[in-house]
Amino acid sequence: MDTGRALSLPSLGSHFQIPDLFLAPKLPARRARTALAARPLTQMEIGGLDSDGREFRNADEMWREEVGDGDHQKKSQWYNKGINYWEGVEATVDGVLGGYGHVNEADIKASEEFLNTILAERFLDAGRGRHLVTLDCGSGIGRVTKNLLIRYFNEVDLLEPVSHFLESARVNLAPENLMVSELHRAANFYCVPLQEFTPDAERYDVIWVQWCIGHLADDDFISFFKRAKVGLKPGGLFVLKENIAKTGFVLDKEDKSITRSDSYFKELFNQCGLYIYKMKDQKGFPDELFAVKMYALTTEMPRQGNKPRPKRTTNRPAIIR
């Protein structure tokens, strides 16, 4: 069986230096101008590097080497290595945060502000008169659920493939360990990897995906979100919070995860049929860490305003008065 990592935190412990710009493969001088003018390079075609400093010409080259081209055994090895890495990490806040447990407060504060804005805009009375349900993907030890989600949602389901993390979450989220009313609870604990999970139809108002999607290859990223759409209630949405590379991508060889750029994410969102409703940068993290961005994603195209934009008329003769 394939296994995958749906962790609570990114590869915060990566200490290698990242160049300000990953260069795309160079074209012969005579052809460069014509080729680039015909079609700009996508982020998936822009180069990246791994934690050993090796450069890749594009994402396809990296994925072929890491997971193969239709090689199920090689892809299984990618996911197994990610699971094995996190099985060796202690089930504590500092453990799941890669030794950066002190960022927990800033992380929760920024996420709460983002969530409050979304609930206020998307649900009548910010959802207070509604039975709200969420899925915490890559829940780890229940850090985000306990500190944030369970205070706003009546039911929280947790999805985490590392068994000792999930068992710790059961303890952390037991009713006697929570400061919430009986109307709020951790409902289900799924020890399943992201790439194998399919939610119940129309169960969730919000599906929260934090610091785990980097363990999915691009094709599994797309198939996960396409399956997960079924789990959203009408008007529901995804929240994705993730590390951001400056451009291209960065591959962590140790825990088998990829940090994608903002443009890379946007290309994948497009292939998933998802639209950005709102996004915001995380503030207050140490400078040596990757930038972190929050995306609220919907399945419907955002409205462009109440009034349609007037059509532009070009090269029409004007009347001279």
Q: How is this structure best described in words?
A:
This is Alpha N-terminal protein methyltransferase 1-like. It comes from Nicotiana tabacum (Common tobacco). The chain is of the alpha/beta class and 321 residues long. It is globular, with a radius of gyration of 21 Å. The chain is built from 9 helices and 11 strands. It has a 7-stranded mixed sheet with strand order 5-4-3-6-7-11-10, sandwiched between helices. It has a 4-stranded mixed sheet with strand order 2-1-8-9.
Annotation keywords:
seven-stranded mixed β-sheet, four-stranded mixed β-sheet, 9 helices, about 20% strand, globular
Which strands sit side by side, in order, in the main sheet? 5-4-3-6-7-11-10
State the order of secondary-structure elements, H for helix, E for strand: HEEHHHHEHEHEEHEEEHEE
The overall average pLDDT, rounded, is 86
Structural class of the helices, strands and pairings? alpha/beta
Percentage of residues assigned to helices: 25-40%
The general outline is globular
Residue windows where pLDDT falls under 50 for at least 5 positions: 1-37, 306-321
Largest sheet: 7 strands, mixed
Query: Strand fraction band?
Result: 15-25%
DSSP summary: helix tally: 9
Q: Cα distance, first to last residue?
A: 78 Å
What gyration radius follows from the Cα positions, in whole Å? 21 Å
In total, the number of strands is 11
